[in-house]
Specification:
Layout: H1 2-90, H2 95-108, H3 112-120, H4 123-133, H5 137-150, H6 154-162, H7 165-170, H8 179-194
InterPro entries: ARM-like, ARM-type_fold
Organism: Phaseolus angularis
Protein name: Armadillo repeat-containing domain-containing protein
Amino acid sequence: MGFGLLASKPRGLRRAAGAAAADSWLAYTVNVRLHLWLFRFSDELSIEEEAERKVGWLLKTIFFVTAGVAGYHFFPYMGDNLIQQSVSLLRVKDPLFKRMGASRLTRFAIDDERRKKIIELGGAQELLNMLSTAKDDRTRKAALQALDALLHSDEALASMHQIGAVSIIRSLPNSPEDAEVEGFKLSLMKRFQDLRYDVPS
């Protein structure tokens, strides 16, 4: 009986060892499969992210190209409307609105095409009207600054001379308190003098 017990122990140990080995192999297999799955998942995720980035850049490119084409066709008309609105502000009696309109025209007058458009829409005439009726230096300075931005071509100077710009600018009162007003006056008169327009029109 004692021998039977001794013989049964090694068999029990062998079974336990076999079970442990089986568990270890199962754990190893599960671990390997898990790593493989994680690798494939990570790889698929990277592919998806790369695809999303490419699609995102494609959509952005399409958007910017579309916006550029629309802007190329639409903005010139919008710019003309803004210039017209600015000229309309010069016709308002309130000096604040006049200064706003003149300030906007100063910003718009950045090339010959826009300067010509401002003159065609009556901006130069309205600026001269604003200048001749101004009661304070701030309003005069805003008008002079806009005129200074407009008069960068012989054609513009000729147009301004025809509508009496020289006599209006010459008749402005001196402004010892605002050097900028005097500076704009002298600059404009010099341009007319250079083209021999410094005579009453």
